[in-house]
Each structure stands twice: as structure tokens, then as C-alpha cells.
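Phosphoribosylpyrophosphate synthetase
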Amino acid sequence: MSITYHYATVIKAIEELRAKGFTEDFNLDENCLVCSVGAFNEDEFEISDIYFYEGESNPDDEATVYGIQSTSGHKGVLVTGNNYFTDSMSAAIVDKLLVHKKK
């Protein structure tokens, strides 16, 4: 896994991942990640790249850009903002995403 803590912008991070073949747009659902090809539980995807973007003047401008690859081979991007995770989301999904941020 490649972790980059500082990247110029969120857009640059997404462009870098798109150039690497991460073409799907993943979104968080309560119990899974979803994209145009389906839904994926926590055991059906891996995080291959993470870019942390820190807002210069406001902590609420922070974002994390994830490069996600499903076990079925679909590659895509997930972007989350600061404090994006909610109580209704699956703990397993949130833990999987946040474990890399805690390193």
C-alpha cells in the first residue's frame, strides 16, 4: 500500500489514481462501499493508496482520498471529508478505512 500524507490537492490525488487505472467512483453506504458495478462489504475490497489532504486554514477542509480495489478486480476512488463517518455506518467499514489513517 502506498500512503502519501501530503499532496498538492484532492484533484491532483484523484488524477494520479485515475492515471493508475482507478476509474470507478466509490461511495460509502451504511454497510458497504458502492459503485456503478455493485456493492462491496469490508472483506471484498482492499485499500491500495491513501492521500491525506490537509486544509491550510480550516480543519474542516481536510479530506482523505482512497485508492480502492475490490477482490473482483474493480479499481476506484473514494473521497471522504473530515468527520464524514456517521454512527449508522458499519463499524467494520469505518474501522477498515480509519486503521490506515491512524498509522
